[in-house]
Specification:
It comes from Nocardioides dubius. By secondary structure, this protein is of the alpha/beta class. The protein has ten helices and 15 strands. The chain has two domains: 199 residues, NAD(P)-binding Rossmann-like Domain (Rossmann fold, 3-Layer(aba) Sandwich); 119 residues, Alpha-Beta Complex (UDP-galactose 4-epimerase, domain 1).
């Protein structure tokens, strides 16, 4: 009996694998290493390198490792780039998920935790998003995640697939100095790399109607996020009811300037970010309520902003010159 983690060699997936091991569950990793690293997979954890688009490989992996449930983290996660690469995004996020779900059905596997996204909401007209907030994705990435949720819903009705989808905004920090965020599009690694090159980070817009004039967003620690995925898997294993969707949010958020201040304090690198014009379409504030997830999944913000930054910085430093740019 084991849980398959798709994308388990990536930044988020590798933390999910560690959390499964800590909970005495048995993870198996399937990853094509397009953005992940084989070194992120712990010794002793079965690792299958390949794509979810390979139906035979997926079926063989499920069978040979006696998989009883799946935590589906794999996907093309770059919302902005997805606008230029819509077909690639749908192939990686929709077609691949279809292959996975068909293989699960054929193998009699009826439990799936889906790593979805708050991008399904688009730009909501509320300051605090709840699960009842209307979905209105504004990129192929957000659309692909919503389609994935629809697929799960319909499979649940048709043949009893047990499932839940976890939506979240900005994932930061590190649960281990050996696991780091290598995304070329995420705020923390972008700012760290700029500082290490001697460049000056920038803030897009300093005149928003927020306490310090910069955008406010949800930032959640990756280790906290991983625990929520495992809690969802455990409830599915126990046959306990779950909502179709949960937000993993802070309920309050942090501003971009607060992030910059925390990075200055943690790194010891003195800098004053350049303030540029607003980016089109950036709302002043979007944060999500995590009340439902707290009720059912034990969700909570276990790390302060300082701890998020310091853990991410320690992992970045440990990576050294091997850090991909």
């Amino acid at each position: 009996m084991s849980w398959l983690v798709t994308g388990g060699a990536g930044y988020i997936g590798s933390h999910v694998v560690e959390a499964l091991r800590a909970a005495d569950l048995s993870p198996v990793v399937l990853d094509d290493l397009s953005t992940g690293f084989a070194g992120f997979v712990p010794e002793g954890v079965p690792f299958v390198q390949g794509t979810l688009l390979d139906a035979d490989l997926v079926a063989t992996t499920l069978r040979e490792h006696a998989v009883t449930g799946v935590i589906h983290v794999a996907g093309y996660k770059y919302a902005g780039v997805s606008v230029q690469r819509p077909l690639h995004t749908y192939e990686q996020n929709v077609s691949a998920m279809l292959v996975l779900m068909r293989a699960m059905k054929d193998a009699g596997i009826d439990k799936l935790v889906f790593s979805s996204s708050a991008a399904t909401y688009g730009t909501p007209d509320v300051d605090k998003v709840t699960e009842a907030t209307a979905t209105n994705p504004e990129s192929p990435y957000g659309e692909s995640k919503l389609i994935g949720e629809w697929m799960l819903r319909d499979a649940g009705v048709a043949y009893g697939l047990q499932h839940t989808s976890l939506r979240y905004f900005n994932v930061v920090g590190s649960g281990s100095v050996s696991l780091f965020d290598a995304s070329p599009h995420n705020l923390f690694p972008l700012v760290f790399d700029m500082l290490m090159r001697g460049a000056t980070p920038r803030i897009n817009g300093g005149d928003y109607p927020t306490p310090d004039g910069t955008c406010v967003r949800d930032y959640v620690h990756v280790a906290d996020l991983a625990l929520a995925h495992v809690a969802a898997a455990q409830r599915l294993d126990a046959g306990k009811p779950l909502e179709r969707v949960y937000n993993l949010g802070s309920g309050a958020g942090s501003s971009v300037r607060q992030i910059m201040d925390a990075i200055r304090e943690v790194t010891g690198i003195d800098f004053t970010p350049e303030v540029h014009e607003r980016r089109a379409g950036d709302p002043a504030q979007i944060v999500a309520s995590g009340e439902l997830a707290a009720r059912d999944l034990g969700w909570q913000m276990r790390h302060t902003l300082h701890e998020m930054v310091s853990s991410a910085w320690a992992a970045r430093q440990a990576a050294g010159d091997a850090y991909p740019r």
